[in-house]
């Protein structure tokens, strides 16, 4: 059985809820990623911040990314999976909620251990399943 831990990329770095969107954008550029988890106290996962969020919810609204905090964009409860979950369950969660990135936590302390992106899925799964996943995610 292939698990979330098998296909995730490790070393996911959180941006704190107090850091600015400009800080987050610099981290994204340095790490060559399009999303960062937003973490609060005790590394509690508060949300996911994407490069698209920065553009649409800040820049396009005429706000200054050097003054808007990541926490201001953290909305709702982020979807997560545990590292030992079967990859088919991971795909079901992503397809059902139409998310392209998913934080991976460990059990039992629920600490962030990695992220799964579309690229991770493409590298870690059979081509037919990747095509099915992409079709589902892009259909909406």
Automatic annotation (TrEMBL):
<feature type="domain" description="CBS">
    <location>
        <begin position="8"/>
        <end position="66"/>
    </location>
</feature>
<protein>
    <submittedName>
        <fullName>CBS domain-containing protein</fullName>
    </submittedName>
</protein>
<keyword id="KW-0129">CBS domain</keyword>
<dbReference type="InterPro" id="IPR046342">
    <property type="entry name" value="CBS_dom_sf"/>
</dbReference>
<dbReference type="InterPro" id="IPR051257">
    <property type="entry name" value="Diverse_CBS-Domain"/>
</dbReference>
<dbReference type="Pfam" id="PF00571">
    <property type="entry name" value="CBS"/>
</dbReference>
<feature type="domain" description="CBS">
    <location>
        <begin position="73"/>
        <end position="132"/>
    </location>
</feature>
<dbReference type="InterPro" id="IPR000644">
    <property type="entry name" value="CBS_dom"/>
</dbReference>
């Amino acid at each position: 059985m292939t698990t979330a831990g098998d296909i995730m990329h490790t070393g996911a770095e959180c941006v704190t809820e107090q850091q600015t969107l400009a800080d987050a954008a610099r981290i994204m550029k340095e790490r060559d990623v399009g999303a960062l988890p937003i973490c609060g106290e005790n590394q509690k996962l508060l949300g996911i911040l994407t490069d698209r969020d920065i553009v649409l919810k800040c820049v396009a609204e005429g706000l200054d990314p050097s003054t808007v905090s990541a926490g201001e964009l953290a909305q709702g409860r982020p979807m997560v999976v545990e590292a030992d979950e079967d990859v088919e369950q991971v795909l079901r969660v992503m397809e059902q909620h139409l998310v392209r990135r998913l934080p991976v936590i460990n059990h039992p302390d629920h600490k962030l251990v990695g992220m799964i992106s579309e690229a991770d899925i493409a590298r870690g799964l059979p081509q037919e399943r990747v095509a099915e996943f992409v079709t589902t995610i892009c259909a909406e």
